[in-house]
Amino acid sequence: MPGENWQLQKEFSDLEATAEFAHALAGELRSGDLVVLTGGLGAGKTTFTRALAHALGVRGQVSSPTFTMSRIHASAGGDAPRLVHVDAYRTDAAGLESLDLLSTLDDSVTVVEWGRGLVERALVGDSGSWLDLELGQPPVSSVRPGAGAGSEESSGGGPVIETDFSESEGDILGSPRQAVLRGYGARWATVPQVLDRLNRRR
User: Fold this and answer.
1) Region labeled Disordered — which residues (predicted)?
2) CATH class of this structure's domain 4-200
């Protein structure tokens, strides 16, 4: 996507490493933030979102929203944001508009699976900010350190419909995967220090 400010790569050896990254990312998120989540079948998008939801402290079980397209998970209280979890695979701009995500955007963290190139400007506008997180089984061959826009789905082929049951036992138990996080817009002009420090750890 044009406008990329930075790119951070991280390999997760297991579920614990995935959760650690999700907790670090959750600590940087606030109401109004948009995370676009990309990755092929078995990439672990829903597994990652579960870890992120746990870190945010939201209520309810997080699963793939394929059949309902959108799920809203209430916050645990206080100033914590809600989590809006969306699957954009089977929709278009008109379908997204019907979900009325703009009405929940300001007081929620919004995570959209299969949303790359579809939701960013529809939700935050041409001058808006968002994070793009691409997950895949290592290596994510289409992504190079310092590369710009134009990467394809990490599965190497066309999109595959995911359901609540798509992730394998290996995904749930924590098979290795690689993450590529990209920042766009003024809100994400630089890599958050906590994520940069985590990424530098060996």
Assistant:
1) 141-172
2) alpha beta
Q: How far apart are CA 199 and CA 1, in angstroms?
A: 22
- Give the tens place of pLDDT for each residue, 92-145: 777 777 788 888 999 999 999 888 998 998 899 989 999 999 998 765 443 333
Note if the bond before 192 is cis, omega within 30 degrees. no
C-alpha gyration radius of the chain? 15
Q: Give me 69's structure tokens.
A: 């397209």
Cβ contact 55:23 at 8 Å: yes
Which pTM value belongs to this model? 0.77
Cα–Cα nearest to 109, from 40, 4, 22: 22
Give the 3-state secondary structure percentages of the chain, helix then strand then coil, rounded to 5. 30, 20, 50
Q: How far apart are CA 137 and CA 183, in angstroms?
A: 21
A 10 A CB-CB count for 96 gives 21
- Cα 129 to Cα 154, 183, 185, distances in angstroms: 23, 8, 4
Whether residue 133 contacts residue 180, with contact meaning beta carbons closer than 8 Å, is answered with yes
- pLDDT tens digit sequence for 41-63: 777 888 888 889 988 988 777 76
